[in-house]
Structure formats: C-alpha cells, structure tokens
Write a structure and sequence with these properties.
The protein is α+β, with helices and mostly antiparallel strands. α17 packs across α18 (535-545) and α20 crosses α21 (595-606). The radius of gyration is 28 Å and the shape is globular.
C-alpha cells in the first residue's frame, strides 16, 4: 500500500531530503560503482514518490531534486568532460495506459488532431550509455553518460570496440555525436566469466565473476588500461545523436537509417509505427522475443518520429517530452523458501533476506532474495518451507512476489523486536515500515558509519581521521565509541612505527583531536547521528536549549509525556497519536521542529547504552553553551529565503550567515518575506517573490550584504 503524502511543509521537506539522499546514493551505486543494491522497481518507486510530493509542494522542490538529475557523478579515475549537449534520461511507463497517456500528452502539447502520431519503437538495451563525437568525420572523443552534464572520457577504450567506426563517410556532417549503448552479448558474457574463472584457477586465486552482462560491459569499458577493454567482447548499438552541425534527416527514422549507412549497428527490431496501437504491438512482439535476443533488454523505447515536433516539445527536468521507455515486467520462476535471515545495515535497518533453493531466473542462478521489510513478509505471509514465485525486478535484484498455496502448514515468521547483532530494541517509527536497531554507536553493524559521521567535516571535523584510519583503529580495538577517539593518545607509542605512521603524523592527528575538546555543541549533536537531527535542526534546538544537558532533559520530558499522555474516551489510536504529536511539538517549542524530532530524541535516550555513550563522550569534551552571535545588518529582524543553487556557499552556511546577521530564515516565500536570495534554478519561489514585490538578490548580492554588516 502506498503511504499517504505528507500534509505539512516540514514533513514534506524532510521526506524530500531523505528521498534526494537515497536516490543520489542508488544512482551512484548503479551508474558509477556498477553495484546496484535495489531493484529497478524499488528505484522507480522512490522517484515516483519524490515526484508526487514535489507536485503537492512545488515551493519545496530542492536544488538537488532527483527530478533534475541524470545518472551519477563520473568515476574518479577517468577524466571528466562536459557534454556538448546533455545526455538525458527517459521517463518510464509500466502499462499500456501510461503509453496511451504519453501520446495524448503529445497531442495536447502540440494541439494535434486525432490523426495517428507516428512513433519509432526499439529495444531498450541494458548497457552503458556512450556518446561518440566525430569532428571532420573522425572519432575524437567518447564519453559515458556520467551525471548527464559531465561524462567520463573513455576514448582510448572505445577505439578497441569493433562495432564503432573510427571515421565517417564524406557525406556525414563536420560535427556529429552518435549516441548509443555499449553492451555485452549474453553468450560473450558467459564465455568471459568462464575465462576469468580459468585464469583465476591457474593463478591460484578466487575467481572474479561479473553478476550480469550490464555490469561486465560497464566494468570493461571503464578500465584504466585500454588493453583490458580490448580483451573484453564489447559491442555497440546506436539509437540517437547529440550535438550536430547538421542533422541528416527530418525524422527519427531517417537519421537512424543514416547511422546504419555510416556503419553503426542498429537494433534489428527498430521500427516506425503509425500510432500508439502499432507501437504497443511492437512492444508485444519484442517482449515475446526477449529471451531469444542476443543481448539483455528491459523494455521498449518510443520516440516521436518527426524531429520538428521533438524540437517543439523540448524537455522537462531531466527527460525529453518526446520519448518514453515502456518497461517489461520482471522475469519469474518458482522455488522453495528455505530460511529467512535478518541483515542489519549501516543505518540500523533490519532487512529480511530469503534463502532460497537455487533456481535460474533470466540466465542467473539465484539463491537469495530480498523480502524488503516486516510489512512485506506479513503481506505475503511468507513462511520457511513455502513454495514462492521469484522475480528479478529490473533484471537485477531478486525478490519474492507471491507465495503459492501450501500443501502443509508452516510456522509464521516472527520478525525480531531486538537487533540480532547487538541486542538493542528494534522499532519502526510511526508511519514508517522499516524496523531499525536503536543501538546506534554500540551496534557493530553501524559502528564504522557512525564514527565516520561524527568525525566528518559537518560534525567534529577532525582532520586525519578518515575511513581507512578508523578501520585500522577499530580492528586494533582502540576505538569503539566516540569518547574513545579522545583517548587515542594512550596508544601513541604503539601507533608510531606502524605502517604508514611516523611520529610527526601521529602527533598531528592527536593534536587535531585535542583541538576538538571544546566543540561546537550543534556540530557535536549532529555528529551523534540521531534520526531527523541534521545540522540545521541541531542549531535550531540549541538556540532554544543552549546546552546539551538541557537537551537530555528535554528528551526525558518527551519520554515521560509519551508514557503518561491520556487517551480521551472513545478516541481512535490515530487521533490520540495526532494529539500526542502536537503536545510533543508544543513541548519542544522550536519553530520548524516537529514531533518526529522529539520522538527521535526520546528513542535515543530511552536506550541505556545510548545514555552511557552520551555521558562518556561528555566526560571527554566540554562544548560551551551555544549562542548565535549577531551583527547589525540591513537584514537584522527580517525574514530571508534562499532558493536555487548556491555556488560558493552551502545552504547550511548561508542560513548560519543570515542568523548571525540577526535575520530569520524561512523555507517558503510569503507576504512576510523581506528578501529572496536566488541562485540558478530558483523556479517557483522567484516567481512568487516577483508577484509579491519582494526584493530579490543573487548570491553575489547576498555576499555583499554579509560583507557590509557591522562588526
């Protein structure tokens, strides 16, 4: 069941932040690391949820909104080059009705009659997007998609792919970018894995196997050494173009035929379709041939055939209005559920994993599948011993979609209410399906990520204490909790002389640690990683409560309120919860800080081990009372709103500057707003400010206001 949309600006902004972070992470895992953790379907659900909230709260659209992003940042080992024209992504359709609506939108936008709209249809190859730039008809550069605006330079590697011409015929334009997919055929993929296994066996080491052809193609193309790429069986299919000094045709079909004439492979199933019914018929035909195709596909791409109509339609956000990807349902198989294990992730999430009798799905042997969360197990009524239907959603991550009727009864699965790693309570927040370990820093499954967070730049900012060093100290048993960081001096003599450590570097690290004995209280609170308490919320709380012990007292008051809050006669559980949340928000008494923060503080301090971590840390550090020093300025006592992309400041830094000038920072534009600071991509807030006659300055104007403030 889809969760209801948030009803307040605060809740909507918080969820949009969580979604932006999650989607950016999964983009990086898929596009940059070639190691996806969730299915295409789950990823699409996150994107759709984000879009739905943005439609409901257009004033809250973030500058880093996933709807404005394509792909992920380029890999560090490859040179970064800006695309002459962005490499955009496609909107997805999952049903015939959505394709029909896509064509209807095209008609409405172009004000067309009911005549058939010609489309092209072609298989959506599951490969790595690549742009090939030809100047004076010679291949001069090849780039991956990257984040859509900046790609990775893989020119030397692409020159080793036999399918890609290094020169175009004389009839080709002077400048032309051919775009398509680098992929690995199924048969070649199997042969590569077999070869790698043989080479590993001969060398006496564990074999490296690629999980699927897409990962194999991506890993092979993005090698540092082009000789490695040349040894891999990569292929290419062209499907479009980017920058061009001239376009050799007036339709998609005509230009694709020119690409074929120039020597580029084109999908055999590429077809021009007169109308949506014909396009859907091509989809059915390609779907029926899917298993027999030499390469993996995950759908069919439709494009408007007329290029002048494409130009009129343009794009919205990260996707063209004139194209859409019609995704296939996942491939399925039956097997037996042999066990359910609980894994604890770095954020404390308890994820149930199904252990399965091995079964082949879409050419891959599957032994494990995700069951997502407690509610999904209950919905499926999945029990050990059941026969289940398995699918590889998006042909990547296996998941159970159905439990078949039982011939014999099996015991229901009891989802744990305590962490299987550390024994702490495991709870789900109101309105959330994920169950999380409350152990935080004492939970081994979360410890490294939590320690990385507390020493990070936004928190304690301890220079020299990066992930590699933290792992070393964890392995040595020198640190386990934050307070241990401030006791590292006891290990100085043992550390000097270890590989990579000299007396000078050891003393520099210890000095950096000692310099944080009186840290900023808000940064320290943020560094503890309590849910819903980012740096802005931490500052807002401490402006009201001043010291960390006072916040601990607040948490005790919330705990007591939760334990004693009375229910009215005949009151429903939902209404009681609503009244309780309002009481908690009133108790906190901080603008823009709601009940979710109060519950998070209470949950943290409810665990005795978290109190022990807190007390231990405050025994090593002494954060001074938190006060925001203010300076007289032209915005003192006024309300300021920041929107768009700030290029020299983070949003948090800009807010801190405004507060130091005596201004109030708001997240939305209203009649009470005195100043809007608008960076690129300001959008609806800038329009609303103009309509209300509110003063608007750019980032340079804001910096001038800050510089002019009285010391």
């Amino acid at each position: 069941m889809t969760a209801p949309l948030p009803t307040t600006d605060t809740d909507a902004a918080a969820e949009l932040k969580r979604l932006a972070d999650a989607i950016a992470r999964h983009n990086r895992l898929y596009h940059t690391d070639d190691a996806p953790e969730i299915s295409d379907a789950d990823y699409d659900a996150l994107v759709r949820r984000n879009a739905a909230i943005e439609r409901a709260f257009p004033a809250l659209v973030r500058s880093d909104s996933p709807s404005l992003q394509v792909g992920a940042a380029p890999a560090a080992h490859l040179a970064k080059v800006a695309h002459a024209r962005p490499m955009m992504s496609l909107e997805n359709a999952f049903s015939d009705e959505e394709v029909v609506e896509f064509v209807a939108r095209v008609r409405r936008f172009l004000k067309l009659s009911d005549d058939d709209v010609a489309l092209t249809a072609e298989p959506k190859i599951d490969g790595l997007s690549c742009s090939l730039r030809y100047e004076d008809r010679r291949l001069v550069r090849a780039l991956t998609r990257g984040d859509g605006a900046v790609g990775e330079d893989v020119t030397a590697n692409v020159r080793t792919i036999a399918d890609i011409p290094t020169e175009l015929p004389d009839a080709a334009p002077d400048v032309f970018e051919v775009r398509g997919e680098v992929y690995m055929a199924k048969r070649d993929f199997a042969a590569l894995n077999a070869r790698l296994a043989e080479e590993a066996a001969a060398a006496g080491r564990e074999p490296r196997r690629f999980a699927n052809p897409r990962n194999a193609a991506a890993g092979s193309l993005r090698q540092k050494d082009a000789a490695v790429t040349a040894s891999r069986p990569l292929r290419f299919l062209a499907h479009g173009w980017g920058e061009a000094s001239a376009v050799p045709g007036e339709t998609q079909t005509a230009v694709v035929e020119r690409l074929r004439d120039w020597g580029f492979p084109i999908a055999d199933a590429f077809t021009r379709c007169d109308g949506v019914d014909a396009a859907l018929a091509v989809y059915r035909a390609i779907e029926a041939q899917r298993a027999d195709l030499p390469f993996d596909i995950d759908g069919v791409v439709y494009k408007l055939d007329r290029l002048d109509w494409q130009a009129r339609l343009g794009s919205v956000g990260r996707a063209p209005r004139w194209a859409i990807a019609h995704k296939f349902p996942a491939e399925r198989a039956e097997t037996t559920l042999e066990a359910i294990d609980i894994q604890v992730g770095r954020t404390g999430k308890l994820t149930p994993v199904a252990r399965l009798r091995p079964v082949t799905v879409g050419g891959v042997v599957v032994t494990n599948a995700t069951l997502h969360n407690r509610d999904e197990i209950a919905r499926l009524d999945a029990r050990v011993g059941d026969r289940v239907v398995l699918q590889r959603a998006g042909d990547v991550i296996p998941q159970i979609v159905e439990v078949l009727p039982r011939e014999t009864e099996h015991a229901p699965f009891a989802f744990p209410d305590h962490c299987p790693i550390c024994g702490s309570e495991a709870v789900a927040e109101e309105g959330e399906v994920d169950v999380r370990c409350t152990g935080g820093l004492i939970c081994p499954a979360q410890r490294l990520e939590r320690l990385k967070h507390i020493v990070s730049r936004g928190a304690l900012d301890i220079e020299g204490l990066g992930e590699k060093t933290l792992v070393e100290f964890l392995d040595l048993g020198w640190i386990a909790e934050p307070a241990d960081i401030f006791r590292l001096a006891a290990h100085r003599d043992d550390l000097v002389g270890r590989e990579g450590w000299q007396a000078k570097s050891v003393d520099a690290l210890l000095s950096a640690i000692e310099a944080k004995r009186a840290p900023d209280a808000a940064r320290l609170l943020f560094g503890l990683g309590i849910r819903h308490i980012g740096i802005v919320t931490a500052r807002d709380l401490l402006k009201r409560y001043v010291t960390l012990p006072a916040l601990a007292t607040l948490a005790d008051e919330v705990i007591a309120l939760r334990d004693t809050f009375p229910a009215a006669i005949g009151e429903s559980e939902a209404k009681h919860r609503t009244r309780l949340d309002k009481a908690i928000a009133d108790l906190i008494g901080v603008e823009n800080v709601g009940a979710a923060v109060g519950h998070a503080l209470a949950d943290f301090f409810h665990e005795p081990h978290n109190r022990a971590v807190w007390d231990d840390l405050l025994g090593e550090v002494s954060p001074p009372p938190f006060h925001v020093e203010t300076r007289a300025s032209e915005v003192s006592g006024k309300t300021v709103v920041f929107t768009g992309t700030l290029e020299t400041l983070s949003r948090d830094e800009a807010k801190a500057q405004a507060e130091s000038l005596g201004a109030h920072v708001s997240g939305s534009v209203s009649k009470k707003t005195d100043l809007l600071v608008a960076g690129p991509g300001a959008g609806s807030k800038a329009k609303k400010a103009a309509d209300l006659g509110i003063r608007v300055v750019d980032e340079a104007g804001w910096i001038a206001i800050v510089a002019a403030a009285v010391e």
